[in-house]
Amino acid sequence: MDKRLNIFRILIGFFFFLLLLRFWYLQIYNGEKYLIYSRKNMVRKWRIPPVRGDIIDRNGKILAGTRPAYDLYLDTRFVKKPIVFLRKLGKKLNLPLVKNYLKNRYTGLELVKIAEDIPRDLLAWVEVHKVFYPELVVEVWYRRTYFKPYIPHVIGYIGKISEGELKEFKKYGLNYYYGDWVGKTGIERLFERSLRGKSGYIEALVDAQGHVLRRLKEVLPKPGREVSLTIDSDLQSEGEKLMDGKVGALVAVDPRNGEVLAWVSSPWYNPDAFARGIDPGEWEELAIDPLHPLENRVIRGAYPPGSTFKPIVALGALQSVIISPSYKIFCKGFYKKGKDTFRCWKKHGHGWTDLHKAIVQSCDVYFYTVGDMMGIDRIAYYAKLFGLGEHTGIELKGERTGLVPTPEWKKSVLKEPWYGGETIPVTIGQGYLLVTPLQMARAYSAIANRGFLPEIHVVKDTPPSGVTIPVERKYFEVVIKGMEGVVDEPHGTGWRARVRGVKVAGKTGTTQVIKEKEKNERKKKNIQYWHRDHGWFIAFAPVDRPEIVIAVLVEHGGHGGSSAAPIVGKFLRYYFSREKYAGN
After folding, report:
1. What is the rounded CA–CA span in Å between residue 319 and residue 470?
2. pLDDT band at 212 (very low <50, low <70, confident <90, very high)
3. Which of 114, 206, 499, 548 has the highest CB neighbour number within 10 Å of its CB?
């Protein structure tokens, strides 16, 4: 018996030795480490997201701002049967509380979101009945809100951060978290860092169950920085009104400094749908829309410029001394190049035509002749001088450069030589030539400036910059006089853009979507919408002191004089009639 007791005593002693050894290991050897762990468990830290900076127009009007939004949460610590509770409450409030609970309950948090951005009347109801419903908790946050005019293709929109974006931002040392809202496109994306601001935080002492005992520290968030755009919201609203129901683009620029005054890509969309979290059905509807409302036509729509390209050809021919202002040709209604015949838009021709008449009445045969004399390389050289085939300087991402075709380009890309007959359509802005509406607004800014090609920008207070085009001023005056005749003279193709008391210079353009032969085989009234010509009109005013350039493209609108010129005219009449107009 004594022997067994001794063995038992030894075992008990060994057990206590191990226990003491463990205490020594935890409290002395690793004491500091576990003290830190203990303190971390006692002190919890919550991040306070910052208020996103506003995006404003040139006059200080808020285009994208924030407003307080209220989310409703269920505190699961106080509810034994949340489904039963929410089913009854959901019927009373007419809200899908159970559905939202089931979607959000796996966050691992005690508070589960059951309603987002609740209306004021529901907020008031919760506050009044909080004594009877302690399980309900309201939390405030600041939601991005977009105001009319929306300008989504410039401002962009925000959305929940993706896993890829989270990794990308962390790579640059930026602290983002799952559930954060970030800029996805446009200015929202471009200025994400400054718009976002800096998060704050709260440190609090909690008990073992996570209940807050007292706040220890609070650091307030720093709001995001304001971004000011060159857009004039009044002009933008007018542009949207004029383009409503049409497909195409309208862009207005101040030629003196390259500031964008209005930017309409039609149709457009409401970015608020993304700010509240767009549902899959809405997204699919936007994505499959045949009119492509998500497409930024101002910088991504690549179109043949049609006859709006003719002033650039004229300037190149004058500067190259290939023609003089008085040079005449006889337009019979067609031009032959080898075996090919190229038609003028006027079936029976314009007769004897000089440069002024050719611009005013948009004679194709005149420019076929002049362009053939210049050759494709010289045409391409002057097209590039006016900024075609390159970026405009705009801050936004995704701009297309269009295409200025050359024999080298064709050989490299299409693996074919350049044929002489391919130069002819390029002279009137057809063939392989492709431009964006913003490129053409920039090119016409150079014409309006008599040779200064500005960099284009949409962010206010960007220092103006640009280059001077090596074309003599006297040639600009000749071409501008013809463009003024387009609007003012009896046979001008752009007479619908006239503005009383203001001299306007412009040029119409009509670009084919299908071949002329195919078009002539059917009656015009039977041509499907998708096969109709695109209509252009680009203008600047006043002629002597240009302060605005406007380019309008109406997809499948038909002749530019009837589809785009009236829009330009109404826009300019609005611009020059505003009370606040003071020539700035």
Report:
1. 9
2. low
3. 114
Cα separation, 584 vs 570, in Å, equals 19
Tell me the C-alpha distance between 543 and 539, whole Å. 10
CA distance 487 to 479: 13
CATH of the domain at 164: 3.90.1310.10
* 349 & 223 share domain: no
- Both 430 and 555 in one domain: the answer is yes
* Position 41 in a domain: no
Model confidence pLDDT, tens digit, residues 349-400: 999 999 999 999 999 999 999 999 999 999 999 999 999 999 999 999 999 9
Q: pLDDT for 59-97, tens place per residue?
A: 999 999 998 888 888 887 778 888 888 888 888 888 888
Instruction: Tell which of 228, 247, 280 closes a domain.
Output: 228
- On whether the CB atoms of residues 58 and 232 are closer than 8 A, the answer is yes
Please determine, for residue 29, whether its predicted confidence score (pLDDT) is greater than 70. Answer: no
Looking up tokens 């009373």 gives: 92
542 and 495 within one domain: yes
CA distances for 554 relative to 176, 402, 510, angstroms:
42, 18, 10
CA distance 369 to 334: 10
Give 351's DSSP letter: E
| Catalytic hit among 266, 307, 362, 563 | 307
Residue count of the chain: 584
pLDDT of residue 152 exceeding 50: yes
Q: Is residue 284 included in any domain, yes or no?
A: no
Assessment of whether the complete model's pTM goes beyond 0.90: no
Q: Could you tell me the residue range of the domain that residue 184 belongs to?
A: 47-228
409 within domain boundaries: yes
CATH label of the domain that carries residue 307: 3.40.710.10
Question: How many structural domains does the chain have?
Answer: 2
508 neighbors 429 (Cβ within 8 angstroms): no
Do 306 and 189 lie in one domain? The reply is: no
SS3 (DSSP) at 166: helix
- pLDDT at position 580: 47
pLDDT for the residue 163: 87
Specify if 279 maps to a domain: no
